Amino acid sequence: MTKENSQDREWMVRYWAKFVREHPDKEWSKQQKELIDSLIS
Amino acid sequence: MKFQKDKIILDKIVNNLDRFALDFVKILEKKADYVLVSGYVSILFGRSRISEDIDMFIPRMEKTEFSALHNSLLKDFWCLNGDDAEELFDLLMKRHSIRYARKGKVIPNIEVKFACKPSDFESLSKKIRVEIGKKALFVSPIELQIAYKERILKSEKDRDDALHLREVFKDNISKKKIKYYEELVMKHD
User: Fold this and answer.
1) Which of B1, B48, B52 sits opposite A16 (nearest CB)?
2) A interface mutation test: which of B18, B24, B43, B50 has the most A CBs within 10 A?
């Protein structure tokens, strides 16, 4: 993985974590549920 | 997410991986103590990825106690490593893990190990109660998870999991504790 890819990935992890921290649980968990339930029944 | 002295209250919409963990511990906790560790801890607190397994430590127990636990789990789950409780117990005693999944399925599964290292015992003794509605799960201290993922596991996925926990818990974790756990895991893992 290039340095730029790694930085972009870290930026996204931080962005989503900030979203989780600053928004109601129901809001982020609804999106998380859509992701997880699409792959695990 | 609400942080109280000895617990975290999550108002999340439960996904299928959460449901699997809750259903498994509902049976297990009647027979044994436990703590959830590693990737699922990050996922429980919002990490945007999936995992095919959930890692769990239980305290070492006698063969008869394990047989009773195994038999009660067989009501809703099956063990991927075999049926014989004695053989499974021997695997656990040799520091291997055993995996349980819902009947008729292989993934997701829960990887169960006896606690054996100092950091495993620390996870068990300092576990955090996470309440989701009327149900609860016990997870390892967040600072220990960060230290373990950054200092021992160190894969890209683990570093991202640790970063997620650092960001989500930035106002609720202790840098002093992370340092303490870094020293613990570097010494013993």
Assistant:
1) B48
2) B50
Q: Which residues of B touch A40 (CB under 8 A)?
A: 15-17, 20, 50, 52, 107-108
ipTM of the complex, rounded to two decimals: 0.93
DSSP character at residue B133:
T
Q: Which strands, in side-by-side order, build the sheet including B35-37? A: B2-4, B7-10, B128-132, B135-139, B35-37, B53-58, B109-114, B98-102, B77-79
* Domain B2-188: CATH class, spelled out: alpha beta
Measured in angstroms, the CA of B116 and the nearest CA of chain A are apart by: 31
Residue A35 distance to chain B (closest CA, Å): 8
C-alpha distances (whole Å) from B28 to each of B31, B65, B82 are 6, 12, 18
Distance CA B88, CA B94 (A): 10
Q: Where are the beta strands (DSSP E) in chain B?
A: 2-4, 7-10, 35-37, 53-58, 77-79, 98-102, 109-114, 128-132, 135-139
Q: What does the pLDDT profile of chain B (189 residues) look like in tens digits?
A: 999 888 999 999 999 999 999 999 999 999 999 999 999 999 999 999 999 999 999 999 999 999 999 999 999 999 999 999 999 999 999 999 999 999 999 999 999 999 999 999 999 999 999 999 999 999 999 999 999 999 999 999 999 999 999 999 999 999 999 999 999 999 987
